[in-house]
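Narrative of activities, Objective 1.

The group set out to show that a structural description can be obtained from nothing but a protein's sequence at a throughput compatible with the screening campaign. Below is one input-output pair from the validation batch, recorded exactly as produced.
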Amino acid sequence: MKLDPADLPALKPLITVVVRATLEELQAADAKLDGRLAYPEPEAAALLGVAPHVLRDARRRGELSARLCGKRYLYDRRELLRFLESTNA
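Output recorded for this entry:
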């Protein structure tokens, strides 16, 4: 399907709605992370809505990275978002 340049003004409201919805989703995801830099495994798993062992297994398979801090693994918020986006693709 080819888009006629004359159709662009008619599509502008639809494009605006889609962009706003996308921005709201991104802001909601950011707010859910509460501005923190990193999360321990149980909290990170809860944020993603999965059991901690699911997160641990993904880390062990190399699908997700985490830092060992003392005896706990900490997950960077950007890494959690990346992982969440890659699993929804």
